[in-house]
Amino acid sequence: MSDATRDGQDALIPQIRIMRRTGREQRATFFELFFDLVYVFAVTQLSHHLLATHLTWTGAAETAFMLVAVYWAWNYTTWMANWFDPDTVPIRLVLTFVMLASLIMAVAIPRGFGELALLFACSYSVLQIGRNLFVVVATPPGRFHQNFRQILAWSVLSAPLWVAGGLVEEARWPLWLAALAIDLAGPLAKYWLPGVGGTPMSQWAIDGHHFAERFQLFIIIALGESIVLTGVTASGAEMNLETGVALSLSFLGSVALWWLYFSGASPVIVRRIGSSTSDDVGSLGRDIFTYLHLPIVAGIVLMAVGDELVVAHPGHELEVVGALAVLGGPALFLLGLIACGVRVGHHIGPASFIAVGLLLAGVPVFAGQSGLVTSGFVLLVLGVLAVVEHRREARGASATAEATDTP
């Protein structure tokens, strides 16, 4: 983080006991890692829900909607923990409350659009309002306090629509879409309120290294769920050569996604945020992490579902929806990486666009082909892309070093 950003953060954040100490680089705490365990379960529930619907369009829409809600709950809590110290007792108690509400929300996911819709909606609304209300009560008057008053107001605004959608099945989709639209629009609108205005982005001071680390850990959660899902599926199937090959291809596909994110996109994002000014760091954090990481996570979850189909029936021909999961998941993941790169002003090589095009064009081609063949094609595309991007980044780093050494 630049000195200007740190000075702005020191001026904005109230110096009270429950806040993180400013002036030094923050790291994820053990309690934050403990907090993430609930979301491991939530991501697993989402994958199982999509599989239980047999990959119907209705099931896909429900899963996508609940994924955004789950991600939004985790994302808002991550923003809060960027400022508040999870090693203090009050913050641990608040995070425990959010964990419990998140656990209840995750339990409701399989029937989140059925008889447990009200439970899903209420648990989501309660955790959002409760967490933001705590910040308003716990902080002294000032710009930071005012920012969270406006955030709380937007959370309260959407809550009636969430509850109404949980109660009225016939109007559930329009009510919940309106509620989620309000929640998603809040950061873009800077939590604007009549007579108050919006919250300036220069006041959204974040520790870029801590923030990047937290979202890196969420990517690990999604990738870990993919490995668990395919591993459990393989253990319940007949362990023959085809199953072994399918499991190996799925695992190596997860490794390829990890490589593309952690050796490619993530370091670029960290460097860009670390060198940002106080006027830029808030908007970068909002755009890259709050919004543009969502397709990355969604792509991993969708690919995990496709991998489960292949491991369960490696020799069977994929239908269109199966091919869409196996190929569309990594394509969505790559589109998220491309969007993040564009947002930080990083040059995107043509290989990434070619890879997305090949994966999407392969959906009609591989519909009707065996899952093993399709997974092999995905791994080939991702593997080649990882090699090309690694070499490109290495050349770029070498050129930068040479330019720096030149007098």
TrEMBL record:
Organism superkingdom: Bacteria
Listed Pfam families: LtrA
Keyword annotations of the record: Membrane, Transmembrane, Transmembrane helix
InterPro entries, A to Z: Low_temperature_requirement_A
Transmembrane segments: 29-51, 57-77, 89-110, 116-139, 151-168, 174-193, 214-237, 243-262, 288-306, 318-341, 348-366, 372-388
Name of this protein: Low temperature requirement protein LtrA
Species assigned in the record: Jiangella mangrovi
Upper lineage: Bacteria, Bacillati, Actinomycetota, Actinomycetes, Jiangellales
